[in-house]
Amino acid sequence: MKIISERGFPQDDYDDYDDTLEENSTEETCEHLCVYRGKCVSCERLAFKNVHQGMWLWLNKEEMDRIRKVESEKLLEDKKMVLVLDLDQTLIHSTEQEKYLRTPQELMQHELRDSLFRSSRPWEKTMLKLRPFVHTFLKEASTMFEIYMCTTGTRSYALKVTEFLDPEKVYFEYSRIIAREDLFETDEKSLDLVLREQRMVLALDDTKSVWRKNEVNLVLVKKYHYFNSDDDLSNVSLSALKTDEDETTGTLPAVLEELKVIHRLFFNPKFEAGLSHRNVGFIFARRSVLQGCTLSFKHIFPSDFMRENSRLWLMAEELGAKFSMDNLLYPITHMVTWFATAEEFQEAELEEFILVHPKWLRACYYAVSRFTLIPCTPWSPSQTACLLIEPALALRTHKLILRCPLTMALAARFIQADVAKLDIV
To answer: What is the mean pLDDT of residues 294-312?
Structure first.
C-alpha cells in the first residue's frame, strides 16, 4: 500500500513541522509511491494527509481515491452511510467551573447520575453532562451509519469522553476519532480526513462555521447548553432553569428521525439514476422545496395501499412535504389528483387548497425548486395547466370545459397516456 506513517520516527519534530497543505494543492499531487513528511521523495510534490488509528498517514491522490471507492462500496452494500459527529454541545456539554464540580459520592446520590460524570486528569477537573437520548441515538444511528467523531478538542479529551458515551467501545473505534491534532486548521473541520465518498457522508454539528468547505453535508443542530458559561452570559442554561431536554421530544430524537428519512431516501430503490448517483447534497437541496406544504393523495392511492413504496410518495417526502389523508389533523395545501370534478373544484376553493397533477411533483423534483405555473383560461391555453391549477380560476374554467364532450374525451385520453408515462408504484 502506498502509505508512509510519520509518527514514531524520533527524528521527526512535529512541533516545528508545518503539515498544512498548500492552497490548491490537489492538482500538484503525483503517482509516485514513496512519501516522506508530506512530500514525494521523487518529485517533492505534496501528498494528502489522513488519520488512521491515531496516526497521520500520507497518501497520494491515486491511493486515497482507491481507498475511498473500495471502503464506500463495502458500506453501500450493507446499506450504510457515514455520520461524522461533533462532541461538545452536540452530544455532551462540559464545564470546568468549580461550582458544578461534584465528588464521586455526591454523583452517586445525584438524580442525574446516569448522565452526569466527573472527569479528573492531573491538569484539570471537568464535569460532563450527556445530552438526553444520546445512548439510544448512537445505538439506532449505528445501524444506518458508520460513525466517526470529529472534535476541535484534544485526542486525550475525546478518548476520555468516549468512556462515558460509549463504555463498551461499540460505536467509536479509535481509528474513527478525529481530534484537534489531526485537523488541518484548529478552527476548521474537513471531510477530507474521512476516507469515504463525500456524497454519502453527513456531519452533525452545532456550529456551521467550522464546516466551511463541507456545508452541503452538514446537519445543523441546536446547541446543548446545560451548564452556565462565562463566555456566554446571554443564554440561561438548562441547569439554571432546573430542567433538561426531553428524552422523547428533545433535539436528538428529532435529529434521529431526520437521519432515518435521509437514509431511506438515499437508498430509495425507486430512484431512477441508481445508487451510484445518489448524493446527500441533492437530498438536502430538495428537502426545502415543498417545506410548509401538506399534500393529500386520497384520490391517487386507496386507503390500504403501501404508499411508502410509491415513487410519487417518496418524491414528495424528499421534497420536504408533509402528508394528510383526511384533511382533519393537518389542513392540506395541495391535493394531488389525476383529474377533478366540478364539486371537487368547489371544495378546493372553499378549503383554500390547490389541485395539482402528479406531474407537478415530478417537475418540482427535477427542477429542485417549487414549480410555479400560470393556469390557463379557455381563451388562453397553457401547455402547463395540467400540472398546477389555481382553485378560483379552475372553478370557472372547468365548469366551461366539462360541458364539452369532446374536451372530456380528450382529457380522458390524456390521463390514460399520462398514467403510462408516470411510474408511481
So the answer is: 81
